[in-house]
Amino acid sequence: MKLNMRELETGYVAEVDTVNEAKWYLLLEQFDDANIYQTWSYDEVRCGGKNISHLLLKKNDQVVAIAQSRIVKVPLVRAGIAYIRWGPIWRRRNEESDLGIFRQAIRALRNEYVGRRGLVLRLYPALFRDCSSSFASILTDEGFSSLSKEVVDRTLLLDLRPSVAELRAGLRPSRRRDLKAAEKNDLEIIEGSDDGLFGMFIDVYKEMVARKKFAEPNDIGEFRSIQKRLPEKLKMKIMLSKTGDKVSAGLVCSAVGNTGVYLFGATSDAGLKSGASYVLQWKMIEWLKHNDIAIYDLNGIDPVVNPGTYFFKAGLAGKNGRDLYFMGRFESYISGFSYLCVSWGERLRTMHRKLRQRLAERDWRNLANGSHATGDAHVPGGVKS
């Protein structure tokens, strides 16, 4: 079956794979909704440079939207998937958001990856249910359907526009007390973006994983490789605290566009006693505020599965936070064969993850697996990969 592609409105033109990595990063800096998952380095590390594709949408010769796709194809046949995480990017800096641009962007994406390439196109837009009605209708009109059977991700967004004093006052009372007590411990704070600091963070992260006895859902080594490839302006921010001569806690955050995203956090045994995670999170909030970041995404909450981490993040969000559900993932396809291949591939991936988890549970069945309210067990889980 052939897709009946819809023409872009007058003035709009789409270009595919016409930019290099340097140009892509310059374009990212022009958008408020740019994010680490749309950086060239992220997908290059995850799937290889030959398996990513870049679409530009221009209106009257100005780039008004961009999207990076991760392409996974079945060898020798015209089947596979184009996956766009937290895209398309379409909110230009210092300009009013135009839903018409969003519509034309997803139309251009569908024309290219579904119509011309015969792939399943799956979008995970950085959109939330509180603003979903208009976007949902546009997605439906443009031939996308929701993956409604999925569990929709949930996160906390901290509004950083109030003053530093107001942000501190907005913390939950228990969190303010914890922070004040931790600050009396005179922790040494180290911050930066170089590989050495990332290596020091991984050491304390591995210590935490061993203590917690959980299977890592993401390979932190991949993020270290991503960090090495990112241009300096877009590198992840790393903050470490030291108790004596040892790192007691660490925090990794990405600040691309106008939103900071909490990616990794870890605390050693010594850090649990000193309250280091409270101090690091507050220092990160101050740093984001100083760098004119408007929102801090605490990146994934589940009060049932992980109540300790939820309690920690909710205390940070306090009065200035919003508890939001993502709209979820949407897909469009015309090739039944592509869809069948993708479905089987995802089943195999799910089976592999379950087997990995069961093996971990078998090894750790007789070990304690407690949950702390200090937020020391955070790994990237706010969005699906």
Strands of the widest sheet, in order across it, are: 1-2-3-4-5-14-6
Give me the count of strands: 14
- Uncertain parts: 364-377, 379-384
| Strand fraction | 15-25%
- Report the total helices: 12
Order of helices and strands: EHHEEEHEHEEHHEHHEEEHHEHEEH
Nearest-integer average pLDDT: 87
Quick overview of this protein structure:
The chain is 39% helix and 23% strand.
Describe the structure.
With 385 residues, the protein is of the alpha+beta class. Helix content is 39%, strand content 23%. The protein has helices spanning 21-28, 40-47, 99-116, 132-141, 164-170, 173-183, 195-212, 220-229, 269-274, 276-290, 307-317, 336-364; strands at 12-16, 52-59, 62-73, 80-85, 120-124, 145-146, 154-159, 188-192, 237-243, 246-256, 259-267, 295-297, 321-325, 330-332. A hairpin with a 6-residue loop joins strand 3 and strand 4 (80-85). It starts with 11 loop residues before the first strand and ends in a 21-residue tail after the last helix.
